[in-house]
Design a protein that fits this description.
single chain; alpha+beta
Length: 108
């Protein structure tokens, strides 16, 4: 019985250590992805957001708990539009527009 608990403890420890050291995408890559997503909205919805006006780029949810469960996000502000990107994969999470419009899925 002790061996089972020891193996379980080792498996959980290895998983936690892996999640803590899992690499995130770099800031410049996050900015490029955010510009790409805003450009998609510009093309599909005929909006006029300027993709060269990046105000800030911030690694959000950067706590130990969020590192363990793997839910860290980049938040990039592009011309007043807040774009949230998964910090590990670069996938689109959501986009918040200046008048509280929210898109959680990119148009096809």
């Amino acid at each position: 019985m002790k061996k089972i608990y020891l193996l379980l403890l080792m498996a959980v420890s290895i998983t936690v250590i892996y999640q803590l050291h899992k690499p995130t995408i770099r800031e410049d890559k996050a900015i490029l992805k955010a510009k790409e997503y805003v450009n998609i909205i510009n093309e599909k919805k005929s909006t006029g957001f300027h993709i060269n006006r990046v105000t800030y780029c911030l690694l959000d949810n950067d706590t130990v708990w969020n590192r363990i469960i793997g839910s860290r996000q980049w938040t990039v502000m592009v011309d007043g539009v807040s774009v949230e990107i998964n910090a590990y994969t670069g996938e689109f999470v959501r986009m918040i527009f200046p008048l509280d419009g929210v898109i959680t899925e990119l148009p096809k």
